Amino acid sequence: MKKQIGHFLAPKVRLIIENLPDELLEKTEEIRLRHSRPLIIFWAGGESYLSEKGPVPTPREAYLTDGEDLEKTLDLLSNYSLYAYEEELRQGYLTIPGGHRVGLAGRAVLEGGRIKVLRDISSLNFRVARQVKGVGEKVLAFIFDRRMGRIMHSLIISPPQGGKTTLLRDLARLISEGTGILGQAGKKVGIVDERSEIAGCYQGIPQLDVGFRTDVLDACPKAEGVMLMLRSLSPQVIITDEIGRGEDVNAIEEAIHAGVSVIASAHGSSLEEICQRPILGGLLLKNYFERLIFLSNSRGPGTLEMIIEGERGLPLYSSRQGGE
Predict the structure, then answer these.
(1) What pLDDT, in 10s, does the model give residues 51-65?
(2) Contacts of 27 (CB under 8 A, 6+ apart)
(3) Which of 34, 70, 110, 215 has the largest count of CB atoms under 10 Å?
(4) Distance between CA 208 and CA 215 in Å, rounded?
């Protein structure tokens, strides 16, 4: 991580990050650069203000990121051709080697009521991509129908930064490669990765391990991507994240009707909250999802709280009681 991300940081910021203790870097989730604001790193449950001498206890002592730092960092991210990245700027993020994603904030230029591009970038958020292999094994045991040899339609639910993407990524890897849990060869997996988070593609190539039977549509809108997968890539399982729009739901219904297993995710903290949303609630009422998987941050991102049988609402696993 140090070398991959450090290469794209302005020299003064790079030096500060590279001089941090390894144990601090290993748990870092975000590096935040904001114009005229303290340089901060975040991890699960904590943050550190950074100075040229290392972590400091107060923001007053921290290094203040300036316009030159932001400009130099943007030059490095765009290879000195920011205009060539207008589509990425419109989306609000760039992906760099290693699958790390850089979120951007600044002045939005509108066209027809929609964001055309971001200008005057004043904030950068380096989100560190980390592969956590094995986190999907427990869940896979609950979503694999051994009798039919198929993956059940599943919806993963958690608050933001609750571990949904990490779980989706590992499930893709496990299902694609085949494991002892499956007891058979892996399946063809299609990932529709609208925000380049699951596979962390850089120039179209996955930077994170999502399995060798996996095809990835990077930066592709979910609804269009699902339909493209169905038409041309013959997946047995489609994986996508953060569904919620009407067109997303329609595409998922098409995939299910075509006999393709679907694993998706949605923001939420409870079944009640999800059911109150018109689009997602309507999808759940149709009982398409056979498994509902709830994650939380109670013991760190990705804490498995509960797995529910979709049609009857029966609990199959609870962190308080264990599984079946």
Answers:
(1) 999 999 999 999 999
(2) 43, 44
(3) 70
(4) 13
Q: Can you tell me whether residue 137 is helix, strand or coil?
A: helix
293 vs 104, 259, 265, 267, CA distance in Å?
A: 31, 21, 9, 12
Q: CA-CA distance, 77 to 80, in Å (whole number)?
A: 8
pLDDT, tens digit, 9 for 90 and up, residues 262-316: 999 999 988 899 988 888 888 898 999 999 999 998 888 889 999 999 888 899 9
The partner residues of 238 in beta bridges, in order of sequence, read: 190, 262
Question: What angle (nearest 5°) sits at the alpha carbon of residue 214, between those of residues 210 and 218?
Answer: 80
pTM: 0.89
Q: 104-134: b or e for each residue (b if 16 or more CB lie within 10 Å)?
A: bebeeeeeeeeeebbeebbebbbbbbbeeee
Tokens of 141: 């045991």
Please name each of the domains of the chain with its CATH number.
2-127 (3.30.450), 137-318 (3.40.50.300)
Neighbours of 88 (CB within 10 A): 20
d(CA 308, CA 264): 15
- Cβ distance 39 to 33 under 8 Å? yes
Provide the β-strand partners of residue 119. 107
